[in-house]
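Hey, quick one: can you model this chain's 3D structure?
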Amino acid sequence: MTAHEIDYVIYGEEMQYVEIELDPQEAVVAEAGNFMMMEDGIKMETIFGDGSKKDSSLMGKLLGAGKRILTGESLFMTAFYNVLSGKRKVSFAAPYPGKIIPIDLRAFNGKFICQKDAFLCAAKGVSIGIEFSRKLGRGLFGGEGFIMQKLEGDGLAFVHAGGTMNSKELKAGESLKVDTGCLVGFTQTINYDVEFVGGIKNTIFGGEGLFFAKLTGPGTVFVQSLPFSRLAGRVYAAAPQTKGKRKGEGSILGGLGDLLDGDNRY
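Sure thing. Here's the predicted structure for all 266 residues.
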């Protein structure tokens, strides 16, 4: 194996975190902001790129950096090394309610494609790159633009799905239509395209968006019930819309109560 062999345990139900056990000199890489805790003996180092052999040359690092700039990601990732002689542990937390999915890249012929924000962490040696769509329809209407993330190698990687996660095994020629935000990832054998919902009433009054992601087998598709964009939209809709004001949720008077309490300066 080119990637480090790591052991792990996933804790929790709704708000999960993954605890990774590192042997001496083993390491795991993660995007900034996913770290939760670590034991003594773990050394944290900011690295340029993902630290994989695929990214080891200067040109490879520069190309990888350019792609990450295009997607709004940082040029750097964080590596966590075990520098002691015994086993040590480091943990990474899910960013919002959902499930952490372990992806053994050996089981998927060395490549897995996922939503750009789904990646949590991976064994050092796994290549974390960008998958550019060659189809215009996917790029304009696929929800993630022309860009998705690809995980390549022979090690373990971890991705996060919002809400409840499910995987679907598609046979050759079998198709599945998914809301573009509910798609977590899929194996490289899946053919991914975007399909117009169709129908005037569906388009104007359906409230489900104008496009589906159409995935055709053979392969495995991972879906989520609560994409972050949907969660953020509900939070924003429930938040006060005027600075310094509250909605008075649960109050019979509601907005009228805000006027009566004299706090109408805004």
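One thing worth noting: The first helix runs from residue 58 to 70.
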